[in-house]
Amino acid sequence: MDDPSLDQWLLRQASVAGVETQAVTVGYSELRTLLTRAAPALLRVPAPGGPRFLLLTGVRGDQLHVLGPDLKVHAVPREAVVEALLAPHLAEMPTDVEGCLRAAGIKPRRRARAREALLGQCLRSVAPAAPFTPCCCSAGVHCSRC
Questions:
Q1: Contact present, 103 and 63 (Cβ < 8 Å)
Q2: What number of other Cβ atoms are within 10 A of residue 118's Cβ?
Q3: Contact between 10 and 1 (Cβ < 8 Å)
Q4: CA neighbor of 89 nearest in space, from 40, 122, 42, 62
Q5: Per-residue pLDDT tens digits for 44-85
Q6: Helices (H), strands (E): how many in the chain?
Q7: How far apart are CA 129 and CA 139, in angstroms?
Q8: Do residues 84 and 35 make contact, with C-beta atoms less than 8 angstroms apart?
Q9: In the beta sheet, which residues pair with residue 52?
């Protein structure tokens, strides 16, 4: 089922169930906040062979509560879901972010924060086929690779 057909199917099913649906696209810097506040929510996770879905039922600290295929609620680390949602976007980036930060001379203890800032600039939205900034230099990080 392609994305438009799947979107229409989800809308019909939500209507039949009497629930409201709203598609949301967020920026990289807003993703963690959305996951913390969105429950209940159906999250579309891009995957080879087509999207997969997580039904987010709640949150406790850094753990997201999701309904599993066994129909039981499981605690999943929020960062694992963030990584799954970002994976296709990071794979499409035309530059190695870590390599870019090393080449720019960013000290190891500051790289995590710099990586977050750079990805916040490069990944403006997290959605299928989301546009991204083509190079780390356009986000203000200049290195020999660009």
A1: no
A2: 23
A3: no
A4: 122
A5: 888 888 888 889 999 999 999 999 989 999 999 999 998 888
A6: 5, 4
A7: 20
A8: no
A9: 45
Amino acid at 11: L
Is residue 120 a contact partner of residue 103, using CB atoms and an 8 Å limit?
A: no
Nearest to 94 by CA among 145, 28, 35, 50: 145
pLDDT at position 136, please?
Answer: 41
* Cα torsion 127, 128, 130, 135: sign: positive
Q: Does 2 have pLDDT greater than 90?
A: no
Partners of residue 64 on adjacent β-strands? 59, 76
Q: Which residue has the higher pLDDT, 132 or 118?
A: 118
Considering only CA atoms, give the Rg of the chain.
17
Q: Take residue 65 and report the two structure tokens written for it.
A: 């509560």
Predicted confidence at residue 124, as pLDDT, reads 62
Q: Which residues lie closer than 8 Å to 18 by C-beta, 6 or more apart?
A: none
Q: Is residue 133 scored above 70 in pLDDT?
A: no
**The two three-digit tokens of residue 68, written as one number:** 């599993």
Nearest Cα neighbor of 117 from 134, 103, 97, 87 is 97
Please tell me the total number of residues recorded for the chain in this structure: 146
CA distance 3 to 11: 12
